[in-house]
Amino acid sequence: MHGYAIRPARPGDEHALFGLIQALAEYEKLSQLVTGSAEKLARDLFGAQATVEALLVEAQGRAVAFALFFGNYSTFLTQPGLYLEDIFVLSEYRRQGIGRALLGRVAKIAKDRGCARLEWSVLDWNSNAIGFYRSLGANVLPDWRLCRVNGAGLEALAR
Asked: Where do the domains of the chain lie?
């Protein structure tokens, strides 16, 4: 590759990954929403009941990008899929093919697992990302809106 390597995250990577998550939140102007920790991330990535997976990109001995994903299911297709929760490349490492290679690796994992689709969300103001994803053949679905219940709303709904 071009001076970088993509590999699955492994125990001990949680602090580097969480640092990248914090950098993503800062980029998206959402730092105030980060309430997790590297320890919680390690539990969910490597614990007995792991719920997510991650790929890490290293360049010059430094973690510079990541993709975090998990399985989902399409009832209409009756096939599994992958949901890409986040993909992020540090700004100084962009435009070097890292994002494309990382997304391609996640797509390969989806295909190898027999998934019918790979999905993710993108903020509507992030025109650079939208253009990038479209250039790779992604469809940005105009008719779908993300719904979220959390905090007190989740507590109330669960009662």
From this structure: 4-158
